[in-house]
Design goal:
Shape: elongated
Strand content: under 5%
Helix content: over 70%
Order of helices and strands: HHHHHHHH
Number of strands: 0
Radius of gyration: 24 Å
Amino acid sequence: METDLSLAVRRIRRTTIAGVALLALIAAVVSFRHMHELCLRHGEDHLAAVLIPLAVDGLIVVASMSILLANRYGSCGGLLAWSLLVVGSLASLGANVAVAEPSLIGRLIAAWPSLALIGSYELLMSQIRRSAGGRAEAQELAVISPDPPADAEADPVELQEDQEEDTVSAEPTGNGRLLQREAWRWAQQNRQADGDLPSGVAIARVFARSPRWGRLVKKAGLAGELH
């Protein structure tokens, strides 16, 4: 049974997602109208005036989804994705301001939907990063505690896999060792924004292995066994 805290976190996240989705819809409609008008003012035909706003909003969506996927794998998203997100957001914001009434209040009103969307999206990303970090930390702490005694009714195949993974860091040669070194190099090249290494779970996901394997690779790498 889920705890009250877990249920509360789920409800908060769902509410945030719903809010971001609503703001995205509002910002998309407002930005589309403003960019469409701006394109027509500057000599673009009707088709181009329709496609250009879609290209700007599409760039924002693709960059955002790329960053979200990277966050789920323990990475910050990379320079390209963040650069494209910033460029798309500035283009949308600039178009909104360009067609506004030439006054401070008019420009603030026109820019508000885009500003609200950018801010709320970053809040949602912060929630997702904290949640992913908490799950990874809990799984890492679980490895520190002693393993429970083997169940007499446990699947022999699962027990054999666990025994093989327990000895993965002791294998000196072979394809398994090469894959471990490759995973450790990937972990070093994809540090999080604060400089920490990806979790063992994130390492395992990238290489399609079990979370236990990823944790053992990280442990062996930190111990200097994967040079």
